[in-house]
Amino acid sequence: QVSAGGGHTVLLRSDGCPVACGCNGCGQCNIPPLDEGLTYIQVSAGLGHTVLLRSDGCAVACGRDSSGQCDIPHLDEGLTYIQVAAGYRHTVLLRSDGCAVACGCNSSGQCDIPPLDEGVTYIQVSAGFQHTVLLRSDGRAVACGCNQDFECNIPRLWSWLDWSASGLRYVSDVKAHKVRLERIFQGQFLQEGDEIIMIFIALDGHEAVRLRTKALDLALETTRQLALQLKAENAENSCPLRVVLPDGQLLDAVCTADPLVTLAQVCSKHEA
After folding, report:
1. Nearest partner of 139 among 171, 102, 187, judged by Cα
2. Across the strands, what pairs with 51?
3. Sign of the CA dihedral running 232, 234, 235, 240
4. DSSP β-ladder status, 131-136 and 141-145
5. Residue 159 Rama label (left phi>0; alpha psi -120 to 50; beta)
6. Residue 183 and residue 242 in contact, taking contact as beta carbons nearer than 8 Å
7. Shortest CA distance to 144 belongs to which of 189, 216, 90?
8. Comparing C-alpha atoms, which of 118, 53, 141, 149 is closest to residue 92?
């Protein structure tokens, strides 16, 4: 994923880490560090600021904050952000409940999100120079803000003279940025002879799962066993699993780099 701003560029790598290049006069290329076990899943570059969406559904921003464009609105409990969009001096964010919020410069009404009809949600947002465009779940698009060049005059999808177009709708690509909540565990090892006991500690500090394995077992198979055991305990929770090794590396990243790595090798190479 790539995003071009006013004088800088932000790119998202396959490991969930963004990189940036270009003008950094306001710190727009100073990507905020992540908490352990998290990744970035979307980036958006504005004129002088950058907005990033984390894998836990939180959004962060860096760079120019002259109009409050980096002051990300607080989320109510149970909600996450699923898309972010950085504009000239404003930011628009899409929440998991289908509502959109905005912060920053509102000189032209670009942060005045149009109200929704009952039963309709927003499914994508985009921030421009001084206007905002939003896509609704019914396939209609709406806009707010500066209309000096008629940028908010959304073309009609059909007219009375063209009945063949009556089924058209505007489409979204926001599915690529949909937040998937993760279950994160700290992995610990206890070696007993040719056996390794894997202990998985949840973020609340309590032990979640303990697996007894062989030292020569594939680490990839252990992650599958963990997923199966957790699914058996809670069939409704199908969130992706992330295991943080003692040295801070992610177990799935280690297995991706070497699918044949054994537990013994993981223990020896990734000790604290």
Report:
1. 171
2. 44, 61
3. negative
4. antiparallel
5. beta
6. yes
7. 90
8. 53
Q: Count CB-CB contacts under 10 A for residue 100.
A: 22
Each residue's pLDDT tens digit, 30-80? 999 998 889 999 999 999 999 999 999 999 999 999 999 999 999 998 899
Residue 216's contacts (CB-CB under 8 Å, 6 or more residues apart) are 194, 262, 263, 264
The single residue listed with the structure tokens 């464009």 is: 69
CA–CA separation, 122 vs 131, rounded Å? Answer: 16
pLDDT of residue 176: 45
Q: Is 28:8 a contact under the CB 8 Å cutoff? A: yes
Give the E-state strand segments of the chain in sequence order. Answer: 2-4, 8-12, 18-22, 40-45, 49-54, 59-63, 81-86, 90-95, 100-104, 122-127, 131-136, 141-145, 183-192, 195-202, 207-214, 241-244
Q: What is the pTM of this model?
A: 0.66
pLDDT digits (tens, 9 = 90+) for 219-240: 888 878 887 877 655 544 456 6
Instruction: Please report the pLDDT score of residue 247 as a whole number.
Output: 80
> Hunting for tokens 């002259």 — which residue is that?
66
The residue among 116, 52, 128 whose CA lies nearest residue 84 is: 52
Query: Hey, what are 266's tokens?
Result: 């993981």
What strand order describes the sheet that includes 207-214?
Answer: 207-214, 195-202, 183-192, 241-244
- One-letter amino acid at 258 equals D
Task: Give the span between the Cα atoms of 84 and 51, in whole angstroms.
Answer: 7
HEC-encoded secondary structure of 22-73: ECCCCCCCCCCCCCCCCCEEEEEECCCEEEEEECCCCEEEEECCCCCCCCCC
